Amino acid sequence: MNNIPKVKVGIVAVSRDCFPESLSVDRRKALVKAYTDKYGAEDIYECPVCIVESEIHMVQALEDIKKASCNALCVYLGNFGPEISETLLAKHFDGPAMYIAAAEETQNSLSDGRGDAYCGMLNASYNLKLRNVKAYIPEYPVGTADECADMIKEFVPIARGIIGLSDLKIISFGPRPLNFLACNAPIKQLYNLGVEIEENSELDLFEAFNKHAGDPRIADKVKEMEAELGAGNMKPEVLPKLAQYELTLLDWIEAHRGYRKYVAIAGKCWPAFQTQFGFVPCYVNSRLTGMGIPVSCEVDIYGCLSEFIGTCVSEDAVTLLDINNSVPADMYKESIEGKFPYTHKDTFMGFHCGNTCSRKLAACSMKYQKIMARSLPIEVTNGTLEGDIAPGDITFYRLQSTADNKLRGYIAQGEVLPVATRSFGSIGVFAISEMGRFYRHVLIEKNYPHHGAVAFGHFGKALYEIYKYIGVEVDEIGYNQPAAMRYPTENPFA
Fold it and tell me: In degrees to the nearest 10, what's the CA dihedral of 475, 479, 483, 488?
């Protein structure tokens, strides 16, 4: 995927001048070796120019890691650390930073070999707050070289998401469909996050599409689609138009990305799209998302933003689904009860017309959009990618601006069950522990729209840290709380 950042973490060790500098030197070397042995050297850079004890050292270290093209910073307290210069590292570094500290090695060196980084981490966090400097600090930030290597590895996807947002442009084609206020939200928070947005009319897109008629690249693009669809190529007659549309979007991205490195699209698909373009864009949306360029449906700008964060974290395709319908009681009885550890209220069906990447479906075929075809000729609704979503772990999540311009988000981990949906579209039977309560006391209570982003795997830990880092208040991050933990709005007598 070329549309997400490549992270390189500069590891800078610090030392309080009244402690042996050798502690930080040796511990830094041990940390780098532990990381390289476990994960390779591609993600990290060891700053060798100095151990930071002063503001002058801080400047030298920053210049060194900048020269090495580091876009993320790890400040490593090999001993107690100098609270001023070590926090200035993060203040003056242009990118996400983390702080970790060395544990003591052995009871046999608790005199000259004691580093007190456990204590120093407290002062580091206090000074970061005094300077209003953001930094990621792991749940338990003090560890052996091996443990600290794991902490850095966990930081990499967090850093990737934060870096990605700082250089993202969202391109939208609107306006939103009529009676679709649910995905409408103020764009001010995008600017607060450092995200640029380019809002266009779908008429601009239609003009660009028409200019791509007869594009000599269409034939090769059709061949790509035929290879991907295989036996599922049920609507071959629409592929040339879909290929023309995909080329239109890809060319638009290159012509309009401006100074931004990464792009995502909030697209339009109804009500006039089908009759004017002559197809629905679902399959093309799925293909771009599979390339690492998320495309949200129905001009859902914050859904698009959420998808991009998940793409950065997972380094994989994501999707955007309606939190759509309940699982019928007979389906639950026949296929879920007694086979999986979920109540009926833990289950629901996630659906969209056909926007999910083919490699995330158990099987797929090109079809027409059933809902739209109820009121339109079938031939103008061709272009959906239908199939049951492949079973496996998922994370359902969304970052959203409220109507009064507050940033909030939710995260819930669960799975797609290996249960046939017997329905249409890109669809799956989802199970999330305590979903019923989460649905009522987070999704409904906090006024979230029906669209949720889906990442394929469990990424809640990284997403939660990204939310915190970018400024979402902890009490504004919803999650599926265990049964023993009551939501603030939950009736204690229910």
Answer: 30
Residue (of 311, 297, 299) closest to 4 by Cα position? 311
CA dihedral 179, 183, 184, 190 (to 10 degrees): -160
Q: How do residues 66-78 score in pLDDT, each as one tens digit?
A: 999 999 999 999 9
**Share above pLDDT 90 across residues of the chain, in percent, rounded to a whole number:** 83
Q: Which residue has the higher pLDDT, 53 or 18?
A: 53
Rounded to an integer, what distance in angstroms lies between the CA atom of residue 65 and that of residue 72? 9
Task: Give the Å distances, CA to CA, from 24 to 31, 104, 145, 151, 187.
Answer: 10, 12, 12, 18, 45
pLDDT at 20: 79
CATH of domain 9-165: 3.40.50.10940
**pLDDT at position 168:** 97
The residues, any chain, with a CB within 8 Å of residue 78's CB and separated by 6 or more, are: 13, 14, 15, 23, 24, 25, 26, 27, 28, 51, 102, 115, 117
Lowest mean pLDDT among 95-109, 116-130, 165-179, 471-485: 165-179
CA distance 413 to 394: 6
Average pLDDT across the chain, whole number: 93
Q: Report the alpha-carbon distance of residue 417 to residue 413 in Å, rounded.
A: 13
* Cα–Cα dist 60/66, whole Å: 10
Taking the C-alpha atoms of residue 270 and residue 372, their distance in angstroms, rounded to an integer, is 9
pTM beyond cutoff 0.85: yes
- Pull the structure tokens for residue 162: 């934060």
Alpha-carbon gap, residue 39 to 391, rounded angstroms? 28
Residues of the chain with CATH 3.40.50.10940: 9-165
Model pLDDT, residue 1? 66
Residue 179: is its pLDDT beyond 90? no
Backbone dihedral region for residue 200 (phi beyond 0: left; psi -120 to 50: alpha; all else: beta) = beta
Q: What confidence score (pLDDT) does residue 5 get? A: 96
Residues near 17 by beta carbon (within 8 Å), at least 6 away in sequence? 53, 54, 82
Q: Which residues of 329-366 are buried (b: 16+ CB within 10 A; e: fewer)?
A: eebbeebbeeebebebbbbbbbbbbbbbbbebbeebbb
In this model, does residue 223 exceed pLDDT 70? yes
